[in-house]
Amino acid sequence: MRNIERPSLKTVLQTTTVAGLAAVMLASGIPAQIIQSYAAPVTVTAPQAPSFADVVSAVSPAVVSVRVQSDAKVASSDDSNFSFNFGGPGFDQLPDDHPLKRFFREFGGQMPGGPGDRNQDRAERGGPRERDRGDNRPHRLRPTAQGSGFFISEDGYLVTNNHVVSDGSAYTVVMNDGTELEAKLVGKDSRTDLAVLKVDASSRKFTYVSFADDSKVRVGDWVVAVGNPFGLGGTVTSGIVSARGRDIGSGPYDDYIQVDAAVNRGNSGGPTFNLSGEVVGINTAIFSPSGGNVGIAFAIPASVAKEVVNDLIKDGKVERGWLGVQIQPVNQDIADSLGLKEASGALVVAPQEGSPGQKAGIKEGDVITAVNGQPIKDARDLAKRVAAFGPNSKVDVDLWRDGKKQTLPVTLGNLQSDEAAAATPKEPDAPAPSSDKALADLGITVAPAEDGSGLSVTDVDPDSEAAARGLKTGEKIVSVNNRKVENAADIGKVIEQARKDGRTRALFQVESGGNSRFVALPINEG
To answer: Contact 486/454 with Cβ under 8 angstroms?
Structure first.
């Protein structure tokens, strides 16, 4: 029997290797190269984000910094109702030549004895304090405010905020290339917080921008704010329109555009642009618990600014129509008490003595529902509409009086002072419904007033709606549903008549501290 020898492991491996190489060479003709494999990188196809570079490049030469000097002792920057004041720990530790430290030293004001207090520094050196020198020597002009602005014509007219230039004696405009030019005040309007300056440079034509049609501005539109925050010079921020028609209580004509672009101290008077490079608003105020930007800024609409600016350039002032009545909003309770179908219009609290409104026959308790046939939405709407007419304009005022519509012709006066046209819309201390049937159900006790006119409130049930709505002991009820009342029986008669007329509330005119307001109390039976 033949012995069959098994091949060794070494022989098998050698044979397998040779066979594999032969197969590779037969397939490719050359030895194959082994390449390591990797996974493909992640890629995401996304829409291209908008760039503001073209807009900024075009409008930046028209935006300027505005420096204001006066002989005022206290330096401060923006002084609007919504503060731009900003500070914080650590600023005194910045280098002396740091732009932020220079800004706060010149425009931020200092606490007596604090870092940067000039009086403290002089006292430590043995010199006299400024307040010890007396007022006999001439006052040196010093920086008192700093803000922003923008040119609206090639011959040098520019717009900024009134609160930036207010009380100033000298004005300097700093261009985006660093050029400094002197400017003069053309006019200012405190009610809209706008002002116009003029740079006289006959040899130079300025890049300027135009106002947009802000009626086309929508919530959610992109906007770009350009200004001079903290004295740093031209700074650009972007955001969207957050809301329209904002009333922040800064004046009778509030109608702000709210934006979330970063706006800070020094941005006042600067423009907010749309993506076409048109000015949709003028940055005026911010809401901020800390004084810094929190994404809530307010800009004067272009439509308001355009009219005011044109008047300031033409006449150096703004003339407005004047009706001369104190008004308050009409809420649903008041509307129900007067038999109005909807809560709109402006309730006349009192006409001013000798005013055009009083001369025309407008009375307390009237609700102004339209002017020249244009419906009045609320008290603030009336203030703006009346102001839009020129002095001596003849208008027809529609009223709701004693459950009927009336129309009175009125010749408007001239609002020359800073008193609000058509009276600043004033919220009542508290509107006010109460309980049910007679005075006991209303939750009040009354007695004849000491002056013989009206009824004094001697007690208010703390659990009543009257108390909840702000009616207080010591106040005087003058009328109910525009009917004079002299005793409790008079009130009862008026309430009973109102119930017969199908009304659920009665309108009480209440006087306190020389002021008058209307309070609607429910009179539902049972």
So the answer is: yes
The two three-digit tokens of residue 292, written as one number: 């810094």
Higher per-residue confidence, 502 vs 259: 259
Determine which one of 78, 189, 193, 311 is catalytic: 193
Beta bridge partners of 395: 410
Q: What is the rounded distance in angstroms from the CA atom of residue 235 to the CA atom of residue 228?
A: 6
154-157, Cβ contacts within 8 angstroms, sequence gap of 24 or more: 154/205, 154/206, 154/207, 154/208, 155/205, 155/206, 156/183, 156/198, 156/199, 156/200, 156/201, 156/204, 156/206, 157/186, 157/196, 157/197, 157/198, 157/313
Amino acid at the residue 442: L
Residue 148 pairs with which residues in a beta bridge? 65
> Which stretch of DSSP H or E encloses residue 467?
helix 465-468
Please report which helix (H) or strand (E) contains residue 236, including its range.
strand 235-246
Dist. CA 316–CA 363, nearest whole Å: 35
Give the angle 429-430-434 at the CA atoms, nearest 5°.
145
Cα→Cα distances 120→92, 94, 111, 186, 415, Å: 15, 19, 10, 38, 46
CA dihedral (331, 336, 342, 345) positive or negative: negative
Nearest alpha carbon to residue 166 among 142, 144, 133: 144
Which of 77, 163, 260, 366 is labelled catalytic?
Answer: 163
Q: Decide which of 244 and 423 is more confident.
A: 244
Sign for the CA dihedral angle at 215, 220, 222, 228 comes to positive
- Active-site residue, 163 included: yes
Residue 193 annotated to the active site? yes
Please, are residues 400 and 302 in contact by the beta-carbon 8 Å criterion?
Answer: no
Say if residues 295 and 255 touch (Cβ distance below 8 Å). no
Q: Which two tokens stand for residue 165?
A: 């230039």
Which amino acid is located at 505 in the chain?
A: R
**Is residue 355 among the annotated active site residues?**
no
Higher-confidence position of 97 and 395: 395
CB contact set of 423 (below 8 Å; sequence gap of 6+): 323, 324, 325, 326, 327, 352, 383
Q: What is the C-alpha to C-alpha distance for residues 241 and 409, in angstroms, rounded to an integer? A: 40
Catalytic residue among 70, 77, 238, 268: 268
Lowest model confidence (mean pLDDT) among 106-120, 209-223, 281-295: 106-120
Q: HSE, CB side, 13 Å, CA atoms: give it for residue 516.
A: 18
Which burial class, exposed, middle or buried, applies to 446 when counting CB atoms under 10 A from its CB (0-12, 13-18, 19+)?
buried
Strand partners, 346: 329, 368
pTM above 0.70, yes or no: no
* Coil, strand or helix at 34: coil
Q: Which two tokens stand for residue 94?
A: 């910045």
Q: What is the pLDDT of residues 170-226, one digit of tens each?
A: 999 999 888 999 999 999 998 889 999 999 887 889 999 999 998 899 999 999 999
Q: DSSP E strands: which ranges in 162-202?
A: 170-174, 180-189, 194-199
Q: How many residues does the chain have?
A: 526
